[in-house]
Structures are given as structure tokens and as C-alpha cells.
Amino acid sequence: TLVGVAGFRKGIDCYFARHDGHAVTCDDFVAAIADANDRDLEQFSRWYSRPGTPVIEAHSSYDNARQEFALTLCQRSGEGQLPLHIPFAVGLVGPQGRDVELKIAGEAAGPAAGPGKAASGAHTMVLDLRADEQRFVFTAVPPGCVPSLLRGFSAPVIVEAGYSDEQLSFLAGNDPDPFNRWEAMQSLALRAVLAVVDGSAPRQSAAALVQAWRRGVSDESLDPAYRDQLIALPPEAVIAEHVEVINPVALRRARDALRLELASALAPLWPQLWRDLRDPGAYRRDAAGSARRALRNTALAYWVATGRQEAYAAAAAQFGEADNMTDRAAALQALVNSAAAQRDPALAAFAEEFHDEPLALDKWFTMQATMHRQSGEPPVLERVRELLRHPAFSLRNPNRVRSLIGSFCHGNAAEFHAADGSGYEFWIEQVLALDAINPQVAARIARAFERWPKYTPERQHAMRSALLLVADQVELSADVREIVDRSLAQ
């Protein structure tokens, strides 16, 4: 980002000329790039000794009379830490959804601050953030612009921008930078889920997201694979990172409620996409076909989520007629997470057809281990215990263990962390049974409790008791003991 592709190549040539291809240090490599491009990268080299991920606070203001847009960037450095040199790419998206030309006002305020890498008039400018706080002023900016920050993920930092829902929705529908458009959509979705967790009605929380999704999924100028990513809700594990205390059941309930609201609000789009994106001929393994299948199968999943019988029928038809595993597995996955009557017959048909295909059967076990329970159904753990007795399952098959036990413990948080503690009892049984067979696999399963202090008090108590019970085993392997002792030490 700091020197460009051509400059990086010059640095590589310089490095090899100096060291004859022998690896030395990161500082040697940075020095070669700096010398080859006549850039001072001494401050940049602090990246190689700084632990953690830097956090950047961004604040903006607009002077209507001068038509100036001011952007202040603040590095949140720890005590005794010197500021990093951070290449921070920015753009300004105008009210019509197009980038405005960037013209920076002289030198940016702050010590050792430069105005930016790109020449004035560019639509994206890389700002050289070198101080704890710097202010950059752009001139001739029309009113109503929204800043597009850290374009192309120009540096591995966390940005706290304080966007409003309206700004995020605008960027999610208009930002020309693909990464930032996706990031805005994810941030908007995350806010919506957290609002439902806090008690807001799903319809109210989803309002801005519905409009952003409609624009994104209907924009045929975008690659289908990218449109597919735009309408992906954040996983439960990502949502859990943004709450003080994790209640997996409440998080799933909120996410599923928002997903149902989004699927229902955009219900006419899903069957249309599913039909329009169908490949006219035989299966072809190419990028274009893969992109179409990705969006088509996501549309099918949202259509099935609405609970319409015609959606269930469409998924069952795709499962039976598909000429490739991608479409067949996607149809089965949609049915598995639904109340469709076709679900269990499809699961049985898949197991019968692919009984001698290990990878396909692994997928079959994983789908059931991670399924979302429908209203009135028994806990998923009951199904998992039944699958332990399946002829194709064996504790001595590591891949099969990961696909069933590992997927349940690590990938189905709401069911694994059931309030009755049944998931924790299952964890104890399986860790101890596996430890006598394959300690390395047992240790992977044991890691499901690594973050136990983040959960609700009753779950903390139950998880800690389970860890202590395992730790008390005299013949416990070193692999599992290391994981358990490290978890208890928190």
C-alpha cells in the first residue's frame, strides 16, 4: 500500500541483490524496500514488534460554508507505545452514490503528517497516519458525503467510525469499494441482530437492512458471488464477540428471528433468483457457474426459511435432480434447517446414495450436528447420540469424530450450551472416551470450553465443574490436560 506493486518489486530486487536470496530479518526486508523507493519506513518497522491489533478512531465534520470535509484519525496506542505508520486508504461517497474527487488542503495537521499518497483528484487516497492523532482536510467537497474508510483493507487495523444506521445503509448500497460495501452490510446486520438481542422487534431492527439487501441482491452489475456475500448474516460466533455475556440460546433466537424477517420481507426475490440463476445446460466447473450456484443456493435457503410449502418442494426437487454435489448438498442443508416433511427422507436418501463416499458422509454428519432445532422438536443432542450408533460412525475415525462430535461442540452453540447442561455431560463423556483412543483429537474437542468465563453465570459454573471433573482424571493425557489446565487458569 505504501509503495505500490512496482515499488514492492523494486524492493524485492534490492533485497535479493543485497542478501543473495538468504533470509535475514524483517527489518532487512523493510530497509531494502525503503531504499529502493526512497521512502522512510523506519516508523513502519514498528509493526514487527507491536503485539495486538491497532484500533483507529475516526471522526469527521463538514464545513458547509467552505465545503471542507475534515477527517480526524486517532491511534489508540498503549502506555509507552510509540505510534505506528499506518497506510489508511479513504474515499468520499457523494449523495448520488458516486465517489467525489479528493483534493487535500495543504499539509495535514500533526507531527510528521503528510497529505496522502494519491495525487489530488483521485477517488481514493492513502493517508500516511504517523502520529497519535492527525487531521486531514479535503476541499471542494459537496454536502452529504459519507466517508469510506480503510478501503481495500489497506492496513490490518480495527476502525471505530461511529457510523449511523443511515450511513451504513448508504455505504452498503453505494460504496464503489467492494470490501467497504461488504463491511458496511455486515456492520448493519450485526447492529440489527444485537438490537433484537436487546429486545427490539425484528421488523423494526431489520428495516434498514431490508432496503440494503434489496439493492445489493438486485444489482445485476455485481458478480453473483459478491451479491451472495452481501446478504450473508454474521455467524453466531462473530455476534458473540460483540456481547459482554454470551447467552448462545438468546443469540440464536435473535439471529433466527431477524433472518426470518429478512427472508419474509424479500420473499418475492428468492424464487425469482432461484429460477433465473439456474444453469441451462449440464454442470460446468468454472468460476461463473460457481458464482451463480452460490447465489442461487442462498436464495433457496432464504426461500425455505419463509416456511412456504412451494419452497420445500423446490428444495426437494433440486435435491433429487441436481447433477452436482454443490446443488444437492445445498438443497439438503436448506431442508435440514427447516420443518419440511421432505427433510428426513432426503437425509436417508443421501446416506444411502453416498454410503461409500467418506467426504460426503462427513458432510451428512455435520449437517445434522449443526442443525437448528424447529419448534416442538427434541434437542439436537438426541439426534447426535443416535448418530454415534450409526454403522458409518467410529470414534477411531478422526474425520468422522470432527464431523459429528466436533461440529456439535464447536459449531452448534445454542444446542451444546443448553441450559440443562446436557451438552456439557456429553462433552465430558466424549473427551474421556477419545482421550483413551486419540489424545490429539480429544484435545480439539476439549477446546470447546476455552472461553467459559464469557458465558452466563450458570453456564460458567457448569463448564468449570466439567473442566474440574476431567482434570481430576489420573490417567489424562498430556494433550488434554494442557487444554483443561489452561482453561481453568482463566
How would you briefly describe this protein structure?
The protein has 490 residues and is α+β, with helices and mostly antiparallel strands.
Structure description:
- With about 500 residues, the protein is an alpha+beta fold.
- About 50% of the residues lie in helices and about 10% in strands.
- A 4-stranded mixed β-sheet has the order 5-2-1-7, with no helix packed on it. A 3-stranded antiparallel β-sheet has the order 4-3-6, covered by helices on one side.
- Helix 3 packs parallel to helix 5, helix 18 (about 420-435) runs antiparallel to helix 19 and helix 18 (about 420-435) packs parallel to helix 20.
- It is globular, with a radius of gyration of 26 Å.
Topology:
Elements: H1 4-19, H2 26-37, E1 55-63, E2 68-75, E3 86-93, E4 125-129, E5 133-138, E6 146-149, E7 158-160, H3 165-174, H4 178-197, H5 202-218, H6 224-230, H7 236-240, H8 248-265, H9 269-276, H10 287-305, H11 309-321, H12 325-336, H13 343-353, H14 358-369, H15 380-388, H16 398-411, H17 413-416, H18 422-435, H19 439-446, H20 457-471, H21 478-488
Parallel strand pairs: 1-7
Antiparallel strand pairs: 1-2, 2-5, 3-4, 3-6
Helix pairs in contact: 1-2, 3-4, 3-5, 4-5, 4-8, 5-6, 5-8, 6-10, 9-10, 10-11, 10-12, 11-12, 14-16, 18-19, 18-20, 19-21, 20-21
Main attributes of the structure:
9% strand; single chain; 490 residues; four-stranded mixed sheet; 7 strands; globular; alpha+beta; 21 helices; three-stranded antiparallel sheet
